[in-house]
Amino acid sequence: MTEKSLCKGCTESVMVTEEVIQELVKETEEDLSVIVSDDVYEARLKSCTSCPALQYGTTCAHSGSLVRYRAKFKNKACPLAANPKWEKVS
Ligand code: SF4
Prior knowledge:
The chain is mainly α.
């Protein structure tokens, strides 16, 4: 079955490899002051995994971000304006 994209401007060309994602996530750990705890990170990813906006298992249709990367940062939030599924951490 083909997964229908919710992104207006995105095609399957936005798909990235597991290697690239792991490299990006590893880079976030170079400055621990800007990233969330493992517990917060896992909770955020759990929300994304069950969200219909998650495309290709990697990308948020609303922000265009790789969720495994975006969810690492304290200053990032779920982009749903009315009812964000996860918030910034101060
Ligand atoms: S960041 Fe928010 S809208 Fe995007 S996939 Fe995750 S839970 Fe869904």
